[in-house]
Amino acid sequence: MDDQSGTTEGRLGRRQESEEAASSSGGDVPVPRIPLIRPLVNRRAAVYQIISNFISSYTPSNSSSDDVRPSVCFAPQMYGSGKTILGKHFREFVLLNRQVLEKDIIEFPGIAGSGESAGKRAVEVLLNETIYVNLDLRSFPYFGGEDFRSTLIETISEEALSTLPNKPKLLAKVLKNREDPKEWLSSLFQVTDKRYLFLFIDEIGLLPSRKFYQFPDLDPQRNPRKPNVYRLFFEILSSFLVLPYVICFIAGRSDAVIARQEDAISSSVNLDIVRLDPFSEETTKLFIQGMKTSTGEIVLQLLFPDHPEGHDWFFKQVRDYTGGVPRYIVHVMQVLVNRSIHNKLYNMTESEMYANIERTPPYMGDFATPSNMKPNTLRVFCALLLAAALKYEFRESETICEELVASENSQYVLDIANKFGFYYEYCSKEGLEQVQLSEQRIKLIFPKMFLKVVKEHYRYYPLIRYIYYLFPLRAPVESLSSLGFRLKVIFASAFYVRCSLSRQLEELSLFHQSFVEDVVFNTDQCSVRTVASLSSELKTKYSADEQSYSPNAWKDLYDKYLSEDGIFLPNKDNSCGPDIFVRVSVPIDDDSSGADEGCSSLTEMLMYTSSKKRRVYLIGITLKYYHSSSVDVDMIKEEVDKFLVPVSSQLELEKNDIWAVQLVVSTSYNNEVSSHFTDKQNWIMNTGVYYEERFKKKHPSPSAWQDRISSNSDKEGLHIGPNCQLVVCSVDNLKDFLGQQVYEQLQNLSSDTESVLNKLDPLAKLLGQLLTSDVPIEPDSSHIFSITADRDEMEVEVVSKERVRGVIPFDWKTFLHQRALLPEEVSTRYAPSFSRIFGDNPRVILRSSLELMRIPEEYIQHILIAVGSLDSDTETKG
C-alpha cells in the first residue's frame, strides 16, 4: 500500500520500529514520533494517462460498436511510489489539473461533441458525476459461498453507498440486479444520481493466495482454460470495463510486470503501466517545503530557524539518499524532525546534515532485495546497480541475457528490477503525450538508504563495495559525449574487482614491468569515491562548488581528494586529466625507526607512528579504447602533458616522496607505438628517458632535464621527469585483464556509437566476466567465497578468513579501551557503532569515517594511532 499516511497493522509495526530505531541511532533516546502532514504533489502525467486509457476503452477499433478492448492503467512499482495516493486522491488530482485537462481532453465517452467544450464537460463529470470506489484486496471479504464476481459487485456497492443515509434500503435495491452486471451498474447510478464509476483496486499482488483461490471463479485448478489467477481476475474485470461507464486503475507491486500485461491481453484487457516517477530534486524541494507537523509548524522552520526556506544542498542530500521515493522522503524527514527536537539540533551545516542523513536507517518494512542471492543473480543485481549509477536507459520490454537469469521467473529488466527493489523513471519528456511501448524507455533508481543494507550484507563482495561508493553518480545524460564516461566507470569496476582478488599489482597484467607491480593494493583499507574533474575553462583554482579544478591547481586537488589511498573516478568526463586516479601508499623500511612490540604508552605509540615513512604512488589511468582511431605517439604526448608534466611541477614529487605513473590503455595502437611492445609486454618509459619521434627509439635524457621547458613539443619529443614513469599498456595485457570477449566488444566501439551499453549488451554479461577472475582465490587469501548448493537454491555465503578459522568476532570495546586508551564508558558506547560500520576489521577505519560519525578529535587521534599499532604488530610478528 502506498498511502503515505499509514499502512496495515502488521507493516505499521515495522514502520514504527524502524522510526524508533532511527530516532535512537547515534545515541539518541527513543521519543514519541511527531506526526508530519505531507502536501499532495501533482501527478499530472499519471492522471492524464488514466483518463486517456478510459477514453480509449470506449473508442471502437473499427466500425463495429461491439469491438471494444478495455484499457486499464496498472501501477506495479515498488512500495512507496505513490500508487495508493494516486488512486485514493484521484478526484483531488483532477481538480488540481482542471485547467490543463479542460484544454487537452477533446472527447469523452458519454459526452456529445468534441473540442474544448467536451473537455470542460468531462472535467465537470469527473468532479461531480462520478462515484469513487477504493478497494484494497487486503481487506476484501473472505469466501462466503458466493463467487468472486458477486462478492466484488457487493463490495463495490457497499463502498459506493457508504455515505448515503438510507444505505441498507438502497443496497438491497442495487444488489437485486447483481446477476446482470449491466442492470446492476445502471441501478447503482440511478440511486446515487451519478453517471460514471471510478474503480481503484489496490494490492492485486495478493491474488495468488489461499484467500482468493477459495473463490471458484478465481481458482486455476477449477478453470483449466486459464492457467493462473490473474487471467481469471482480468476476465471478470473486463465484464465491468465494457459497461458505460467505468474508469479503472489497479495497483500492486509485481515481479512479473510484462507477464501481467500478457495475462490481461489474454482476457481482452490492455494494461498500460502508469507513470509514477520518483521525485526530481525540484519536486523533492516542493514536497519538503510543504511539510508541516500535526501542530501546524513548518518543518523547514524547525530544522533551519535561520533559513526557514531551507537550503538547496539539503534538498539534494535528501533526494540522493532516498532516490526521490515519496515514502522514504517522508521517513527521512520524520527522523530528522524527531532528532532535531529531541537533541536540539538546529541550523546544521552541510557536512553535519550529510552525516545526520547518512545515519538514518532505512524504512525496512519496504526492503525487497533478496538477502541470499545466487552467484548469477548477484551479478545481475550488480549489473542493474551499475546501470542505475550510469543512468542507462532501458526499453520497457528489454531483457537480460538468458544464461544469467535461466533460473529466474522472468528475463525482463523491469520484472527483475522490481524483484530486486529498484524504482524507475521514464525518460520521455514531461507532458501528456502517449509514447508507444516499443519507444518507451526507463532509467533505474536504487535508493542509497537501501544500498547501505545491501553493502553490509555483501560487504566482502568486491563489486558491491565499489558500486556503493559511486552512488549517487552524476552521470551525463544519454549522448555521444557520455560514451567515454560510461566506459571509465565500467573499467574502474573491473579494476577494483581485479584488485580485490589480487595481492599485488603485478597480478594485474596492466602493470607488467612497471615499478608498481610489486606494490600491495589493500582494498580493505582503501575507499572508492568520485572526485572533482579538471577543467581548462576555469579562471580560478576551482569552481564555487569545488566540482571542477583548474589544471594549475593539482596541489589543491591532491590535498582535498587524494590524501588517502583508493580508486578515484572524476565526477564527469575529464578531458584535462586522467580518466581514473589510483593512490597507493606503502611503508618504507627504516631501521632507525623501529619500535618494541610492547609500546606501553600513548606517547611511545605516537612517536613510533609519526616516525614511520610512507611512499605514495599516484597512478593516472588514461583510457583510449573508445576512440575510433588508433593511438599514436602524439596522443600519448597529450596525455603526459595532462598528468605527468603538471604533477611533476606542482606536487614536488621528490621532496614529498611521491612517484607518479601514467598508464595509457587502448585496444588499438599504430605501428609506431606497437613496435615498442616486445614479448607482448608494455612499453615502459622511466625517469630520465625521452622519446624522439624522428629516431623511433629511446635515449638517455641529459642530466639537465629539469632545465628544459615543462612541455612536450614535437621538436623535443616525449620527456619523463623525475619520480615519473609512463606505461603504455599492450593490447595483449589488456586482453588478459578484461578477457577476450569483453576486449572484442570494446574493440568494436567507435565514437559514433549511440550508447556504450548498447554494444556491451548486456551489461550483466560483462560484469559476470569481470567477477570470473583469472587470479585464483587461494585458501589463505583475505576473502573466501563459500558456495553452498542444494536442490532448491544456491546461496552465496561470504566470510572473512577469520571466521573460516573460527575466531570470535572482533572485540571493539577492548580495542577502544585498551588499544586506543579511550575511557571505558566511552568505549562501551562506541563499540556497537564501530561493529556495525567497520565489521570485524579495524584496519578499514579512516579519519573521514570517524569524522562522519562525529567522534571528538581527541578520540580520533587515539583511534588512528591504535590502528597504526596493529600494522606494527603484524610486521614484528612477521
TrEMBL record:
The lineage of its organism: Eukaryota, Rhodophyta, Bangiophyceae, Galdieriales, Galdieriaceae. This is Archaeal ATPase. It comes from Galdieria yellowstonensis. Residues 1-28 are annotated as: Disordered. It comes from the Eukaryota.
